[in-house]
């Protein structure tokens, strides 16, 4: 935050931007500007990602070889538990909506802000309260339940569990606030002419996500509350020692935690549509199919939770029904992949860093999806359940999907957020390291799992040693890529080239109608939307160009200066703007 | 165990394994073909339509209904095929033949007890007859947590719960030694909750099961104590050779001076040992955590006495 403010102070001579306007710490902490709240979330989440990532490195280091050890079994259990909890509940679930959704959504629909700016600020504070409770949980005791909190093990673990479940309960409200805000914003704050069929697909992704956030998050809140009540009042709900049922807990837990997977992946789908369309300069293939399949996934996502429980002891009939619905939800995801690839057909594909992440996503998420089909097969899941195959599968979806899309999105919108370009060469190198490191780390885990290596093992039998070693080496490559991203991002804040208004020649409003660094109120005049978000093909209208001779592009390619971005959408008539 | 597995799957040693493996490889190859197709198309298009000029103005592409319908219909048919096949295998896995040989299995933190109809009892070792369907009825000890019974070479897995029975069945095909893993996270000893599966030819198994039946009443207290030491998983945390594990070693424990975390100390006499078995957190020796060892109050009076006598023997 300070860094960003510092960068902005050097541009005093230039027009008012959201970064040089109201720059004191107090003004940041009380801001109702969706862009600043997005940045506050970005900083908080970056810290969580760093800590949770270092925990993952500790886990990989411990597992490097059967004889090598850096910690005790109890410490190992706490390490993977905190890695999982922080990554899932405190990082990936809020990440894309809270950072990029907050920053980009109002800009993309031509709005001044979200519908409830105070609620938006409250969501950040609630999230931070969840963070404080998490730290408290670590201080009051050991937390070694795994991120799934399965009873009765979690019932026997004491006060740390109560604080941690309290943290998840509280930070859930941050999700609900954001979701509620986005739904109302998308319904009520669109600029004139921004019809549902002209919504950028990132907005559609956020819309579907918000529905899931608002409907599913209360369930995890209730579950966590029941866990706390059971432990403090000794009422039997989930703990068999008190007369409760552990399988009931699993139903409750997955009823939220499966839809949570869609909270993580739907906004990533949205980012991907933006990247593929812009860097292929082609109308997205099957716009309507992509938009509606997101909503279909959001709805069906509530009906498949039981596929986590094929060997739990739930009835065979339930398992069979859940398996069938699981396949139905796989199909819309497949359709999206095909549509994105078809979008490149007869396009003009520009392999800048964000596009490299988009192509990585297609590669990795396809593996994530296909391994999902594998674990959805009833007879095969019995063998694969709770092995490293599942660990590999969900990392391909959550990291190979959500986190890679987030990285792509961060690179794509970085110029708009900071007003600076990053180093394109380093960006491409880092994208390569992340891609290679990720596959070396997690593909080996797929093999480990199908060979029978169980999850959450501190020690393992010798026949798994070789693959564990390769996986650990991969994790070092992956980490080096991510640290490189951190390095050049920080460098860019201070020394990066000033970004033009539309370095990628994108056609959505945040690029065509918003200054290089956005105005505190986003638009100088309310835009009137006259075409779809990816209508690059309407060449005469879109590529008219302002011809102001200003150098554009990021300067990495020598021909980037000749790039002419789409022209701005016209202003709406004054009476519309005041309405 | 010989290493005759494939790149993806370990050796197959049960009748159902062949079926599961066939299905695994069908999904695998179908996935591999789709994946290669997707990646090839991606690379081809990204190269063929690479940007040649920053001001390229590509022609719009008309969406093709036929294409879109085909990539909805073909995957749907494929997944329904896979679902049906997986469903049939699952039904096979769930339906034990009526003539299956029944073994009782009990999981605890951290180990496995098995009891055979003829009276034999084993800990962390499962003996099985080859070529004969076996059903194992599983439960977790009262007050214990969830575990999961996983035989990778047999392709079967079943969660084990403290408040109900679950069961798993299979038919071993090859005599040999195989792995038993716990796959439901259960605490510090989770990765040590391993067992050994010994598949014997039918006649050898019959011999073994006839000899292995032990009458506990015939054992001396120390012998019974050793049996209980293994059966209750004490060896997971308490060594007999002086080496440090999650709990204090039993070697030289009796009549030694015990210093506690709260600064008191006491000599380890019979009553101290008894208390530590029944109420482990009453006195915690310095350097060890409380809340780690479960109570063994459910043991019979003779079993507790036998354990105390056994510990006294470890000089």
From TrEMBL, chain A:
Gene Ontology biological process terms from the UniProt entry:
electron transport coupled proton transport; oxidative phosphorylation; respiratory electron transport chain
Tell me the protein's name.
Answer: Cytochrome c oxidase subunit 1
The biased composition feature labelled Gly residues covers 544-556
GO MF annotation: an example: cytochrome-c oxidase activity
Q: Where in the cell is it found?
A: Cell membrane; Membrane
Job description of the protein: Cytochrome c oxidase is the component of the respiratory chain that catalyzes the reduction of oxygen to water. Subunits 1-3 form the functional core of the enzyme complex. CO I is the catalytic subunit of the enzyme. Electrons originating in cytochrome c are transferred via the copper A center of subunit 2 and heme A of subunit 1 to the bimetallic center formed by heme A3 and copper B.
Q: In which pathway does it act?
A: Energy metabolism; oxidative phosphorylation
Q: Which gene encodes it?
A: ctaD
Q: What keywords tag this UniProt record? A: Cell membrane, Copper, Electron transport, Heme, Iron, Membrane, Metal-binding, Respiratory chain, Translocase, Transmembrane, Transmembrane helix, Transport
The segment(s) forming the Cytochrome oxidase subunit I profile domain are 20-530
Chief place where the protein resides: membrane
Transmembrane annotation, as ranges: 39-60, 80-107, 119-140, 160-184, 204-229, 249-272, 284-305, 317-335, 356-380, 392-414, 426-448, 468-490
The protein's annotated catalytic reaction(s) are: 4 Fe(II)-[cytochrome c] + O2 + 8 H(+)(in) = 4 Fe(III)-[cytochrome c] + 2 H2O + 4 H(+)(out)
Q: Where is this region: Disordered?
A: 540-579
Q: Which PROSITE patterns match?
A: COX1, COX1_CUB
Q: Which NCBIfam families match?
A: CtaD_CoxA
Tell me its family: Belongs to the heme-copper respiratory oxidase family.
List the top taxonomic levels of the source. Answer: Bacteria, Pseudomonadati, Rhodothermota, Rhodothermia, Rhodothermales
- InterPro entries noted in UniProt: Cyt_c_oxase-like_su1_dom (IPR023616), Cyt_c_oxase-like_su1_sf (IPR036927), Cyt_C_Oxase_1 (IPR000883), Cyt_c_Oxase_su1_BS (IPR023615), Cyt_c_oxidase_su1_bac (IPR014241)
Membrane association type: Multi-pass membrane protein
| EC numbers on record | 7.1.1.9
**Any one GO cellular component localisation term in the record:** plasma membrane
Automatic annotation (TrEMBL), chain B:
Function noted in UniProt = Subunits I and II form the functional core of the enzyme complex. Electrons originating in cytochrome c are transferred via heme a and Cu(A) to the binuclear center formed by heme a3 and Cu(B).
Where is this protein primarily located? Answer: membrane
Q: Where is the Cytochrome c domain?
A: 220-315
Is Iron among this UniProt entry's keywords?
A: yes
Q: Where are the transmembrane segments?
A: 23-45, 66-87
User: Which UniProt keyword terms apply here?
Assistant: Copper, Electron transport, Heme, Iron, Membrane, Metal-binding, Respiratory chain, Translocase, Transmembrane, Transmembrane helix, Transport
One example of the protein's molecular function in GO is: oxidoreductase activity
Per the UniProt entry, the Enzyme Commission number(s) are 7.1.1.9
Gene Ontology CC = plasma membrane
| Topological category with respect to the lipid bilayer | Multi-pass membrane protein
Report the sequence similarity comment from the record.
Belongs to the cytochrome c oxidase subunit 2 family.
What are the residue boundaries of the Cytochrome oxidase subunit II copper A binding domain, all occurrences included?
98-211
| Cofactor or coenzyme needed | Cu cation
Q: Which reaction does it catalyse?
A: 4 Fe(II)-[cytochrome c] + O2 + 8 H(+)(in) = 4 Fe(III)-[cytochrome c] + 2 H2O + 4 H(+)(out)
Q: What class of enzyme is it?
A: translocase
Domain Cytochrome oxidase subunit II transmembrane region profile per the UniProt entry, residue ranges: 1-97
Locations listed in the record: Cell membrane; Membrane
Question: Which protein are we looking at?
Answer: Cytochrome c oxidase subunit 2
What does the record list as GO biological process? ATP synthesis coupled electron transport
Question: Pfam families under this entry?
Answer: COX2, COX2_TM, Cytochrom_C
Species:
Longimonas halophila
| Co-factor binding details | Binds a copper A center.
